[in-house]
Amino acid sequence: MKNRKPLLICFVIAATVTSCIIFGRQKLENSFIVRVSTDELISQLSVNKNDNYLLEALRLANEAYQVSDEEYITLFGRAYSDVTSGADLAPLFITPRLRSHINSDYSNEEVLSVLKRELGYTIDDIKKVLESRFVRHGIYHFSMERAGNSDTISIGLPAVEDPDRLRNLIEARAKVGIWDTYGFDEIYSHFFEVNKLLFGVNISDIKEDLRKRESHEMPGVDKYRQSALKSRESLYSSDLSDFITGNITPGDEPQFKEFAIENPLFAFLIPNMAPDERGSLSPVQGPVVGFTYLSDTAMVNYLLNQEQAKSVLPQDLRLLWGYKPIPDSGDMMQLFAIRVKTNDGSAILNEESIIDADPGYGKDHNAPISISLNREGTRLNERLTRDNIGRNIAIVLDDHLLSAPRVNNAVSERQFPLMVQFATVEERYDIANLLASGSLPIAVTIVKESILKE
Fold this sequence. Notes:
The chain has 16 helices and 19 strands. The chain has helices spanning 4-27, 38-45, 52-65, 72-84, 90-93, 108-136, 163-171, 184-197, 203-213, 222-225, 240-245, 253-262, 297-304, 307-310, 375-387, 425-437; strands spanning 30-36, 143-146, 152-157, 176-181, 235-236, 249-250, 270-271, 273-275, 281-283, 288-293, 317-321, 332-339, 349-350, 354-358, 369-373, 393-397, 400-403, 415-418, 444-450.
């Protein structure tokens, strides 16, 4: 009888712990294995990310990683030694960030040890960003654990209604940029010149090459990346003007091929032209260059990256797709013209200036996200908006354009509204979450998952 009370207490404690464990397991029904891009980290930490020996060592390490159980950094060290015949690693990593950690007389093993430590710090930073994203998403019960000293993280999350939103929360880099833009009316002649210079390219060969390399560059948030590629309608026109203005009808493949020989670019990218008062085609003002089907973005990218195109297009021009198709358009994407005005090619204002983002309340998908900037960001935004009164600026997330508002006056307040084109309420909330939680220091990729929907 004397032992009954302690036994009862032990039983209650054991039952409570067991039920918590079972409950936790029941709640964390979605699991992900995420790999961080260690090769990107090594490149960031190096003196020169374009060093040929570095690039070759990273390539070999990536190949070896696919079939080896060894840590990536160990494989990189071995590959670098092979391609340089045993050269020292230290000179490659004596940078401002690592100068206090690496000396010129460090052995390769000591350098690799520093890189492994930096990887650990980076993974800790990634976990903090992901934790903020999950909590802002309303997920308070989750698990995240690094697998030993590897470059993978195991994540456990509860069942949700839309798993694609979880994938986006995990994988989105959340790199933000606010840029100047070109008006299409300022640069349209360059695109017509590119179309002429590409005359006669073999579209069939390009399509086959893209298929072989699996190079379809699917723009937009992850849920749109998951969309199956649609078979493109065969389009033809006896007159380029009719084609551009949209007076096109489905036709047979031979007629489209004939059109594509003479107009390789405009066979896939419909330039942003419209009839003027006299009925003549004129470029539309604003940064929209043109339109194409989601499944044709890879083809347009390919054509615009040919040497003929690079020789004609302005050096400070950067072309970006919108983050999702135009609603009710048959998956039609917009291509935007960004103007780079910094010497290093960076945005004038980036994610480091954002301290918070509020999606607002209600179910109106047209409601703006309220962005809060720090002091430096406020100063830069005032300069950017003052310099672009009467023009458009571009707000970009992970190399896809969210919005291109026209500036009516300089904005000196710390808060400014961000209207996201075609966003649903859920997308607006997710974008605000990404902006508020900060960007991932390096890219992460889901390599394995087990999903259970609510």
